[in-house]
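Input record (one chain):
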Amino acid sequence: MFVVVIMFTSSLACNSCHAEWAPSCIGCHNEYDPQEPGYNMVTNEEKWGSWVEYIGTYEAKETTLGIRTSENGETEVIPVTPGMILTIDKASYSNDENDETIFHRVFAPVAPHTTSKEGRDCLSCHNNPVALGYGEGELSYSIESGSGRWKFESTYANNSNDGLPGDSWIGFMQNRTGTVSTRTDVSPFTIEQQQKILTVGACLTCHDQDSEIMTELQFKVNKL
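The corresponding structure, as predicted from the sequence alone:
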């Protein structure tokens, strides 16, 4: 399978191809409602006022792919899913409009029990915005003035907290720094890695994945 060119130095975890789907929730918004009945665990009594979690879109779909890096520097492509796209509105509790909003966008490695005999095909990785970490939307390739160009239009609007689409892990052709995962050894694809994946994806827009020319490309890439 051509997904081996995701990184020339990476190996593929079995479930990166053979996990058919995983649960995904793209957002939780937590807000304090003074009219919501609650329970005070310290005083052991009922009270008025409680935090309410408003859950975002819940789905079951193909996983995103990311990189796990071992202590000795070896890398492996693994499946990941949104672990926490979370907003906590502190101002709703403090009544201070200037109070800081807590926001996290981190993905988590998964080993879903949805193993299928048939693995993902080339297009489902190299031409799939969800697999790449961009989220749902239209990923298209066109040739303009003799040069190929990829474009991405997200299904979801950008989150005001970080400017990224609601369900994404990374921006299109962007790097992310800071806390990006629930595990310190897991990260999204870098710009360089995205370029390598989409280079093969560009070929697949015209050539069948089982064609002779794509087989030759796979052989050449594996020799690098």
